[in-house]
Specification:
Chain A: Pfam families: TctB (PF07331). Chain A: This is Tripartite tricarboxylate transporter TctB family protein. Chain A: Keywords: Membrane, Transmembrane, Transmembrane helix. Chain A: InterPro entries: DUF1468. The complex is a heterodimer of chains A (157) and B (508). By secondary structure, chain A is mainly α. Chain A folds into 2 domains: 56 residues; 66 residues, no CATH class. Helices cover 68% and strands 0% of the residues of chain A. In chain A, helix 1 packs antiparallel against helix 2. Chain A starts with 6 loop residues before the first helix and ends in an 11-residue tail after the last helix. Chain B is mainly alpha-helical and 508 residues long. The radius of gyration of chain B is 22 Å and the shape is globular. In chain B, a hairpin with a 6-residue loop joins strand 1 and strand 2. A two-stranded antiparallel sheet of chain B has the order 1-2. In chain B, helix 3 runs parallel beside helix 16 and helix 4 runs parallel beside helix 18. Chain B starts with a helix and ends in a 6-residue tail after the last helix. At the A-B interface, helix 1, helix 2, helix 3, helix 4 and helix 5 of A face helix 9, helix 11, helix 19, helix 20 and helix 21 of B.
Chain lengths: 157, 508
């Protein structure tokens, strides 16, 4: 079987086609609530669903090499060292969002910023803790104490 | 053209803009914008995206004045990094790198920054004068706009996809469709039924555009920085920022030419600052008696694209205010800002909120002046800022993003969305899927759907109704012309960009 020329585009095209099908199904569901066949909450979703499937299909075809094109270089999706750091940083962000709900804004921010300083700036732990305390203190003073932003207090307390 | 009424409104705008609070907002906007724009890797779009939630605590006029200041400031800040670090924050700053960075290497970074500030000021003023003359012309058509005209206008906005596509037009359209799809989440405008909620109550309220913008621009930028192991290093000492008489003499005509090219092409909704900056640079190279000096430190090569860049930025406010069409990524984020304040840009904005629009226009004059006053004496500070380590800035930006996403609706759901789109944005950038069409279509989605449904109802289910009205027909024809012009200009800009990338210019 022919290997796609551009694997990232191939995957993207497949995702687009799946999205297209999902949108079309939703359009079909919404059509039951519409007064007119061609004007209602379902119309734009139906058009978009069609576009996604059609354009995704074109991209899928384009991601395969043409006859004149040379054999595609093998694409790898294994993240390198920097890719792994990006992944860790992003996962830390998700963990931070979860921790805000559990520990509250102050503690979660202090912990998350230590991780960010160590991960992104490669600082030693005590430097990261120092920067984290400064940053969390500044953020808390300005946004929570001064501007009265009602951040979650944390489910744990 | 300029009528007595327009002049009166402009003067009233000046009177309001000169109030202490508004002056302070223009000053703060220009200052903060330059500050963020100078930080390596952060362009005007990211700068506005990060700072947008901060301005929501202000009343609309003050908020918009501050945002316009941030926009101009960030544009100038982007030029500073382009000249000193060879890092253009946006595509439009690439031509500035071509001669700005060689000048910096020759120890003339200071004069290059000075000329860049003066060119931005001159062109900014040219652009704002044009705004005063041309915007009312479009606004006069306000009352003739009905749903079919709005629908035609939304189709016109679709032509922007071409100039915002970056590389692949197909991916641009798919991303636009994704943006439209995201805008559909929530209650349907016609039936009031929840759509695309899949049983999650948080999705019934729809997705907040600020959290998506913060994710796709600001968080993505940080993730990109981590991947690129971003560091900040400045070449040598920039020298005095005040250009010599000879530099000024050489730059005067390029500034004017660049300003005019930038302004008139910037009026076209599909013409971005990147296109005009490249055109102005190439024009200068063609008219120069020493074209061989370009690319090796010609001061004209900084003056012309900077003027074009800034004039296009000002001209871009005309289609933004009068038609609701943003012609560049930062203006797309500014459009989101206007909508947060409950102001829908478009033909009726001038009729319904004339005082607001004219105050903002007047404050642009002041903002440009402040930028000049601020930048010439403070270049040393901006140079120092480019040395701030990314390892310190990135965590600060991430925490500000969290607060920005949360503060709009006081909801952790929006924070999750921002983080999710941050990761998605990184993948989009990595695999070259353009992000701006997504934002543009997400913003225009509700308006497109509403006008589409109304037009269909008016035409008894037929879209041919749009062609039967002169104004909507004219807009559709304009869309076709713009599409062709955009395709041609975009192809040319891509070729030029490709040439420069081959020579080693890296676009952040």
């Amino acid at each position: 079987m022919k290997r796609p020329h551009n694997r990232a585009d191939w995957i993207g095209a497949l995702i687009c086609m799946v999205i297209g099908v999902m949108i079309s199904l939703e359009a079909y569901r919404l059509q039951a609530y519409a007064q007119y066949m061609f004007a209602g909450d379902h119309t734009l979703p139906a058009i978009l669903g069609f576009f996604f499937v059609m354009l995704g299909g074109v991209l899928l075809v384009q991601s395969y090499p043409g006859k004149a094109q040379a054999a595609p270089p093998r694409q790898t999706f294994a993240p390198g060292y920097e890719g792994t750091r990006v992944l860790y940083a992003w996962l830390s962000l998700l963990l931070y969002a979860w921790l805000i709900g559990v520990l509250g804004y102050l503690l979660a921010t202090a912990l998350a910023s230590v991780v960010f300083f160590m991960l992104i700036g490669s600082y030693r732990w005590y430097v990261a803790v120092f920067y984290s305390l400064l940053l969390t203190g500044a953020m808390y003073t300005v946004f929570v104490l001064w501007l009265q932003l009602p951040f979650p207090g944390g489910d744990l307390w | 053209m300029l009528t007595i009424e327009t002049l009166q409104l402009l003067l009233a705008g000046f009177a309001t803009a000169f109030s202490l609070e508004n002056l302070l907002m223009a000053f703060l906007g220009a200052l903060i914008g330059t500050f963020v724009g100078v930080l390596p890797g952060l362009g005007p779009t990211s700068a506005i995206a990060i700072l947008l939630p901060v301005t929501t605590v202000l009343e609309p006029t003050q908020g918009m004045i501050m945002l316009a200041g941030i926009y101009y400031g960030a544009m100038y800040g982007g030029s500073t990094t382009a000249i000193l670090l060879n890092i253009p924050g946006e595509l439009s700053s690439v031509p500035t790198c071509l001669d700005g960075y060689p000048l910096a290497r020759l120890g003339k970074g200071g004069p290059a920054l000075g000329i860049s500030a003066i060119a931005s000021f001159v062109a900014g003023v040219v652009g704002v004068i044009g705004l005063v003359f041309f915007a009312p012309l479009l606004a006069d058509q306000a009352l003739k706009f009905g749903p079919p005209e709005y629908f035609a206008l939304m189709l016109l906005a679709l032509t922007l996809m071409v100039s915002l596509s970056g590389g692949s037009l197909l991916k641009s359209f798919l991303m636009g469709a994704f943006g439209y799809a995201l805008s559909l989440v929530g209650l349907g405008p016609s039936s009031g039924m929840p759509r695309f909620d899949y049983g999650f109550s948080s999705l019934v309220g729809g997705l907040d555009m600020i959290s998506i913008i913060i994710g796709l621009f600001a968080i993505t930028e940080v993730l990109k920085g981590i991947a690129e192991k971003r560091r900040a290093t400045v070449v040598g000492k920039p020298g005095s920022v005040y250009p010599q008489k000879a530099d000024m003499k050489k730059s005067a005509a390029p500034m004017l030419r660049g300003g005019l090219v930038g302004f008139f092409l910037g009026l076209l909704p599909g013409c971005s600052a990147a296109i005009t900056a490249f055109l102005a640079y190439d024009l200068e190279k063609k008219v120069s008696r020493q074209p061989e000096k370009f690319g090796h430190g010609a001061i004209e090569g900084v003056a012309a694209p900077e003027a074009a860049n800034n004039a296009t930025s000002s001209a871009g406010f005309i289609p933004l205010f009068s038609l609701g069409i943003p012609s560049s990524p930062p203006l797309a984020v500014l459009l989101a800002g206007l909508m947060i304040y409950g102001l829908t840009p478009g033909p009726v904005l001038f009729a319904q909120h004339a005082d607001f629009v004219w105050t903002v226009i007047a404050s642009m004059f002041i903002g440009n002046m402040m930028l000049l006053v601020l930048n010439l004496p403070m270049v040393w500070l901006w140079v120092k800022l480019t040395r701030v380590s990314f390892g310190i800035m990135a965590p600060v930006i991430l925490l500000l993003c969290t607060i920005g996403a949360y503060s709009v609706r006081n909801s952790m759901f929006d924070v999750w969305i921002a983080f999710l789109f941050g990761g998605l944005g990184y993948l989009f950038v990595k695999y070259k899927w353009p992000v701006v069409p997504l934002i543009l279509c997400f913003i225009l989605g509700p308006l497109l759907e509403e006008s589409f449904i109304q037009t269909m109802a008016m035409g008894s289910g037929s879209l041919g109704f749009v062609l039967s009205r002169p104004l909507s027909l004219a807009i559709l024809l304009a869309a076709v012309v713009l599409l062709i012009v955009s395709l041609l200009l975009n192809r040319r800009t891509r070729q030029r960009l490709h040439e420069e990338q081959k020579k080693g210019v890296d676009v952040a």
